[in-house]
Amino acid sequence: MAADPQPKPTTSAATIRGDDDKSSTGAKPDEALSDTDTNPPAATTKTNEADDSAQASPSLSQENTDLERGPEKPTDSANEKEIEAASVDGNIVFWDGPDDPENPLNWPNWVKWSNCALISLLTFVEPLASSIFAPGVPLVLQEFNTTNTELAAFVVSVYVLGFAFGPMILAPLSEMVGRVPVYHVCNVFFLAFTIACAKAPSMGALIVFRFLAGTFGAAPMTNGGGSIADMFTPEQRAGVMAVFTVGPLIGPIIGPVIGGFLTESKGWRWDFWLITIVAGAITIAMAALMRESYAPIVLSRKAARLRKETGNPNLRSKMDGGRTKAELFKHSIIRPSKMLVFSPLCAIFAIYLGLCYGYLYLLFTSVTFVFESTYKFSTNTVGLVYLGLGVGCIIGMGIFAWDAQREVKRSIENGGLKPEVRLKILPYGALIFPIGFFIYGWTAHHVTHWIGPIIGLVIIGIANLICFMTICVYLVDSFETYSASALASNTIIRSFAGALLPLCGLKMYDKLGLGWGNTMLGLIAVPLIPVSFLIKRYGEKLRTKYEIKNL
To answer: How does pLDDT run across 272-320, given as a tens digit for each residue?
Structure first.
């Protein structure tokens, strides 16, 4: 952009000359808004020559953006050119140095953690809504005069189908208008459709309202990883992601425990009223406390404020790519699909977690029938069975946190933290995953003591959490510039699996029995073991060889 002919505004040089700072992903000024491309580590204050070229010539092509590795380390001559370019163009707005308090990476810890806590609570409650009324499904069938077991499974899993469709729109929206507006709007619609579920007059209406509630309930799972990447450096993310990622796993597990007692005492409709009350309280807290963490939006607002204060209409954010809202939306909405097509790792991990997630929801729809028919558990007691999965998830979280802390410390001592460090524990989760199904299936088949199949569920819970958290943290670290889109691509596939696999679960058990049915599930999961070892060994080569450009 040409220099402004008006007198230079009286704002700090660091604010106007964003050229002295560097995004952690090497983003260029003319790139489309992305998840974290304006959040440099606090100690990093340099840009590369590509940044300089992009600022001097806004029309430069974006084709050479290296999404996964970022730019090469700048040379001294490059820095000199940046300073020279900054003196020519004084209209670029960026952070006021590496310690700018407006930069979400520099927020006080209590602000970061309050944001993270609210998002994590939402990622707990909204997946919890997927399974809370699973113990009450027989009462739903009775009230609506149907005995269709496939319909019984679908009324539970259709909520997860909404998780598949929501990210297609919600991830691009968060990159256009910011995280907070998407959270607020989706919260309102989630509450509205959850109330509609509580008042549903028919099975068809209940299915439709469940789907729509799931669609808007996908917001925290789709954009939460991006919010965390906005506020925390890679070294800090493992612990934060542990808090965030446990919600989608623990929520559906705790749901049937609560739903079992609530359904028996108040009826199945009160499952939805409880979700409305809890989610409503979180929505109010988010409206009062949430701060926008998406750096391109923060910088855009800062530029608008400075234009008003200085009277200089030429001031613009360093991350303003000059695209219209329509162009941004079109560009962003295809990004998750491009990741699935052009990144082998994204595709492999989507299928990987699709299998894990699908199995988890197959268990949600089958455990109630298995323990009521085989072990004669009552409606409220059968909900306690899901605690086996919950205990497994808690153990898995402890194992993951211990391993992450150890590996991060070791990597920093050895010179740097690569995303592939996250994958070292993945093969162990894959190894015990099928074992859990073998134990669950054959102990239930032979009607051993009820603790037998629950031990199998504990092992499944450990494996599921290790695999889920490892892959999610890896995706955020590898694609941090587009972390919301990377998680969205994964969420779409795994949610389809979570919605569709349970539909064949009860029929499979009817034909094969609990023993051979779960053995088949375990054998299908066995290939995850060699896949995990191969990705652990060759993941970095795949990541660097298949670079995703021009996202």
So the answer is: 999 999 999 999 999 999 998 888 888 888 888 888 888 887 777 777 7
Question: pTM for this structure?
Answer: 0.71
Q: Which residues contact 476 (CB under 8 A, 6 or more apart)?
A: 225, 228, 229, 237, 241, 483, 486, 487
Domain ranges (residues) in the chain? 112-292+328-545
pLDDT by residue (tens digit) across 418-453? 778 888 899 999 999 999 999 999 999 998 999 999
DSSP for 159-224?
A: HHHHHHHHHHHHHHHHHHH-HHHHHHHHHHHHHHHHHHHHT--SHHHHHHHHHHHHHHHTHHHHHH
As a whole number of angstroms, the distance between CA 529 and CA 434 comes to: 10
Q: Which CATH number fits domain 112-292+328-545: 1.20.1250.20, 1.10.3810.10, 3.40.640.10, 3.40.50.150?
A: 1.20.1250.20
Q: Is 338 exposed, middle or buried (0-12, 13-18, 19+ CB in 10 A)?
A: middle
Distances (CA, A) of 137 to 55, 152, 265, 308: 59, 6, 15, 58
